[in-house]
Design goal:
The chain is α/β, with parallel strands linked by helices. The protein is about 50% helix and about 15% strand.
Length: about 375
């Protein structure tokens, strides 16, 4: 028995070391709860849209990337980061379909096993005043097609931006989209300016969502705001997940509450560095929160804007926090627990995830023997 355990430990340590190779980490099966479609675009497809719609961008792809991506070697700069998000790319519903389809097709290269992808219908509709319902259906249709072709398990969250609509406009749009009864939409996300649009301005909207019992709730909070906003997101808006939530590291009582209620923190290491919300990557709160048993997950946020991918964040946890293969699996199982799926679906997903991890470890040990 001791011999078996020793072999198992050696295998785990060996695989953990191998996982630091980018080409290996990209194959590690991952569950992601916090990624924006608008920040995950396939850059070559976006470039084609810019050219075909005669937008004022460079004609070469290499120069185009400089305009739409945050420089990897840049110091944190929140305004520079925000400047990379544009909503004038789309001149037709075919444009929306194409950018969605090609973006989701690329997700499998990052080892995604399951994702709850969030998108804002308002983002895609605003410039041309497109019909928001048709936008929503177009995105779901394109993403489902790409997911089917790549064997990706995908569900969707509707993002509402605090600075774009008031809560009554949100309720109106939400009612319309809910009436479509799209089963793949499983949750609602509140994003945008935390400081000037605190949770208390959206209580009626989220009370309505809670009452309907149709979708889960995740709130961007505690990224650039104090822990009090995380409390408000939970108590006023009924959040069962928190986008970022880095400021929870400052509130021990909140941390205990997160454990007791199993409220998931969707943490994003690279994104937090680039926006300047947490510039010390090697001491990102994820490390201590995980060590203290707070339910945390690893996420990419806006990988194409950041000129990165989810695998890069995973590698950072190995290099900066000394995480192991077992830690990564545990974090992914926490993410499954935090999904907005039914309990039966979660149980099935977790079983299939463990099988996928087993296949991955066997393949890695075969390719990189001890």
């Amino acid at each position: 028995m001791k011999t078996d355990q020793t072999i198992q430990r050696k295998s785990s340590t060996h695989i953990t070391d191998i996982l630091k190779k980018k080409e290996v980490m990209q194959k590690f099966p991952k569950v992601e709860l916090h990624r924006h479609l608008e920040g995950s675009f396939h850059i070559p497809t976006l470039h084609k849209l810019a050219l075909s719609n005669k937008l004022d961008y460079p004609k070469t792809l290499s120069l185009f990337k400089q305009f739409v991506q945050f420089p990897k070697d840049s110091e944190p700069d929140f305004l520079k980061f925000l400047s990379k998000f544009k909503n004038n790319w789309y001149r037709s519903f075919q444009d929306i379909y194409d950018i969605t389809y090609h973006s989701i097709k690329k997700f499998k290269t990052d080892g995604l096993f399951y994702i709850e992808l969030r998108f804002s219908p308002e983002h895609f509709a605003l410039f041309n005043n497109f019909d928001r319902l048709k936008v929503t259906k177009t995105i779901i249709k394109a993403a489902n097609a790409a997911a089917t072709e790549t064997n990706l398990y995908i569900r969707y969250l509707l993002t509402f931006n605090r600075g774009k609509q008031d809560q009554f406009e949100m309720i109106y749009l939400y009612k319309q989209i809910s009436a479509l009864k799209i089963p793949e939409i499983v949750g609602v996300d509140l994003a945008g300016d935390e400081i000037n649009y605190p949770p208390k301005r959206f209580t009626e909207f989220f009370q309505y969502i809670k009452k309907k019992k149709q979708h889960g709730i995740t709130i961007h909070a505690g990224e650039v705001s104090p822990p009090s906003q995380i409390w408000e997101a939970i108590n006023l808006l009924s959040a069962s997940r928190i986008g970022h939530g880095t400021s929870s590291i400052k509130d021990k009582k909140l941390q205990q509450y997160l454990i007791e209620r199993n409220i998931i923190l969707e943490q994003c290491i690279t994104s937090n560095f680039q926006t300047g919300s947490w510039t010390d990557e090697k001491n990102h709160p994820l490390k201590t929160l995980y060590a203290n048993n707070i339910p945390v997950t690893i996420n990419s946020d806006d990988p194409s804007i950041q000129d990165t991918d989810l695998s890069d964040d995973y590698i950072k946890t190995l290099e900066f926090f000394s995480f192991t293969l077992e830690d990564l699996v545990a974090l992914n199982e926490t993410a499954i627990d935090g999904t907005f799926l039914t309990e039966l679906e979660k149980t099935d997903l977790k079983s299939r995830y463990r099988q996928q991890v087993k296949r991955f470890t066997n393949l890695i040990l075969k390719k990189y023997p001890i």
